[in-house]
Amino acid sequence: MRRRVEPDAVADDAGGVERAGRLLAGVRVGAALGPLASFLPGGQVARCLAESRSEWDRQVASVAREVGALADGLTATAAGYTEVESVVARHLGGHG
């Protein structure tokens, strides 16, 4: 079974993934937990919330980087398919 890859569609998908990554990078769960911690000054719960805030932000940033890498990979894939189609068309004189 042959499948036809549409480089423009892959590039569009890469753009969508990139936009999602930018949105994700802006998520700050830790910032949302800040007001909660202020209601619980001192004690174990406040300490745990501070650690949780930091860990959430680290994890979200890590996922955003991975999503960015996926977008970069899709962009490179689309460019690669476009280049292959161009080379094939040149060598086959546009018949293929």
Structure report:
This protein has a domain at 26-90. It is 82% helix and 0% strand. The relative contact order is 0.16. The chain has 96 residues and is an all-alpha fold. The chain has helices at 7-25, 29-38, 43-92. It is rod-shaped and about 75 Å long. The model has no long low-confidence stretch (mean pLDDT 87). The protein contains 3 helices and no strands. It starts with 6 loop residues before the first helix and ends with a helix.
Poorly predicted regions are none
Characterize the overall form: rod-shaped
Oligomer: single chain
Helix-strand sequence: HHH
- Name the beta content range: under 5%
- Biggest pleated sheet: none
Per DSSP, the total helix count is 3
How far from one another are the termini?
17 Å
Q: What does the average pLDDT come to?
A: 87
Count the E strands.
Answer: 0
Helix percentage range:
over 70%
Topology of this structure?
Blueprint lengths: L6 H19 L3 H10 L4 H50 L4
Helix pairs in contact: 1-3, 2-3
Briefly characterize the structure.
With 96 residues, this protein is mainly α. It has helices at 7-25, 29-38, 43-92.
Task: Give keywords.
3 helices, single chain, 96 residues, mainly alpha
